[in-house]
Here is the input.
Amino acid sequence: MPIDVHFRSGGITVAGHLYLPEDYKEGQKRAAVVTVAPGGGIKEQTSGRYARELRDRGFVALAFDHRSYGESEGFPRYDEDPFAKIEDIKNAVSYLRNRPEVDPDRIGAMGICGGGGYAPAAAATDRRIKAVATVSGVGDQRGVFHEQTGSDHGVLVAMLEACGAARQAFSRGDEPTYWPLIPGSEVENAFAPLKEAPDYYYDSTRGAHPRWENKTLAWSLEKQLTFSALDVVSLIAPHPLLLIVGTESTSRSHNETTYAAAADPKELFLIDGASHLDLYDLDQYVKQAADKLADFFSQSL
Here is the structure.
């Protein structure tokens, strides 16, 4: 069972699950990894799964709810703010460095999907993160929006005008405006990984959870539109970067672009037959990814 923990980030209390290896003995200082959820995700979903996999391979692992998600504080809710999330990761590192079970000089981070942009961006500027990895990473949110809209300036402006209207309504005392995180099937130009997302998030045997809702704060879009880990990923070096993606993943091209933008040491590791969402929770693929992560962090931390 995980240990329920809390730490402060941006003046907000953030909730997490800390996982200790079964063979942990009091007084030991272990390497630790922060696992970062996909955009909109919570700690009971895939980031928690990877935290458990890393625990089973000898690491201390921390999965947490970003501010405004899950059991963490923060209002309005569901604020997909890349820059705030990066700060949450850095504050999670601060928390781990103060834990008696953790060697403060052996801390890494890994992120899934959108977390695969936030974790590298955090590692690029926080040198306390000694190694970083991604699984089905999507690090270029700015590029995603341009991809979805065909870089149509008019469409982007209309989206931003809707954000401004939502902000103004909130300032008048209205409830926050939330848009679907996962678009309906009628949205033809939806980001490809999101088209698979219902198979995971709506399935009670996979990612469905009472604290997860298909919502994102309307004006989160303003911040996402200006974020790309590609701007800073080269700064991770000389710390190592590992990118794990399935050969059948709709995010494979994003990983190849990130790999090209990064500096050595870096590795792009392909898992044969896996789609973007397969790597969230399907045993045959997650076990391969977790073994690779454990090998990577064992050598790097």
